Amino acid sequence: MPGIIGPSDYSQEPPRHPCLQVNAKEPFNAEPPRSALISSYVTPVDLFYKRNHGPIPVVDDIERYCVSITGLTGNPKNIFMKDIWKLPKYNITATLQCAGNRRTAMSKIKTVKGVGWDVATLGNAVWGGAKLADVLELFGIPKFTGTTPSGGKHVEFVSIDKCKEENGGPYKASIPLSQATNPEADVLLAYEMNGATLKRDHGYPLRVVVPGVIGARSVKWLDSINIIPEECQGFFMQKDYKMFPPSVNWDNIDWSTRRPQMDFPVQCAICSLEDVNVVKHGKITIKGYAVTGGGRGIERVDVSIDGGKTWLEASRYQKTDIPYIADETSSDKWAWVLFEATADIPQSAEIVAKAVDTAGNVQPENVEVIWNLRGILNTSWHRVHVRVGHSNL
């Protein structure tokens, strides 16, 4: 692509915050400490998790950078950043979450395959850019369209990012055309994050943001947009990020029997406490995040200090005064809530948190029932253990 290159090695990586917990250096995969997540409703860019599959691309000429629109569309051509900047700009607050968030807890049941993420492989940001529906309309695809006259039903996003899983080819993923052309789905071609130009780690100069869907579909370093008749056939759509039952293992797996995972289930985690924490007295504050997919929003968060026998409802809050959000009230449905509860605990306690979304979906009690060989979508009740004693911290 003109204006952007994909390095063949890791010699041109951007700087990263020293507090990040690094799970892999090449490619770079890291998450912040869980306590850092609850310091701000909007996650600072430097503390936003980093999920990569290869060296970070480098843009050497933003004026020459463009995205090709191809496939089953009547008007294939390139679109440059100057054209995207002319379109109406939207600021959408949305939480992106890796499908492998909380994988380490699942791996304690039985070995799983994947990066060993704790509970902080997500972040909440204000994404600024053009709606994909507006971009596609420029190329003859009307809003609220499910099929083009030539049979296009899906929109494929292809990255400049090269990865070993694609045999050295580009990372790619797709969403249904009906979602891409629906302005209310808020799918963005984003060039800003938290009121500033995207950083390289997060897709500079242009990335896709698909709110409410696992992070794997929000393709970074966008190279092309293809209108295709069926789902993307790339590795990460067909041979990964699918939800299998606990009975499936690597000897009997059949990838074709499952759909690619899209919406994220209801999720929450405690971030103010580690497992195991020693506290100096019996009263503690329990803080964390809760989020769900599909634009449903969080109805409530329940907290227990006796392992789930009795519950109290946590207080929760969402948007604060953020100058670059403006009046985008619809953003609330894509964003997490931060919750807080205070309780007196006995000498030791198992503290549990679970969330309920607006459709009444609730997290499963035990991780065993949702264990899967890839360790994705661990949305079981989050548990931490504390005891009262003298802390050396």
UniProtKB/TrEMBL annotation:
Keyword Metal-binding among record annotations: yes
Name of the protein this chain belongs to: Sulfite oxidase
Matches recorded under InterPro entries: Ig_E-set, MoCF_OxRdtse_dimer, Mopterin_OxRdtase_euk, OxRdtase_Mopterin-bd_dom, OxRdtase_Mopterin-bd_sf
One of the Pfam families matching this protein, by short name: Mo-co_dimer
This protein's UniProt keywords: Metal-binding, Molybdenum, Oxidoreductase
Cofactor: Mo-molybdopterin
Keyword RNA-binding: no
Organism: Ilex paraguariensis (yerba mate)
Pathway: Sulfur metabolism; Energy metabolism; sulfur metabolism
EC annotation from Swiss-Prot or TrEMBL: 1.8.3.1
Enzyme class: oxidoreductase
Domain of life: Eukaryota
Annotated CDD domains: eukary_SO_Moco (cd02111)
Residue ranges constituting the Oxidoreductase molybdopterin-binding domain according to the UniProt record: 53-235
Upper classification of the organism: Eukaryota, Viridiplantae, Streptophyta, Embryophyta, Tracheophyta
GO MF entry, a single one: metal ion binding
Domain Moybdenum cofactor oxidoreductase dimerisation: 260-388
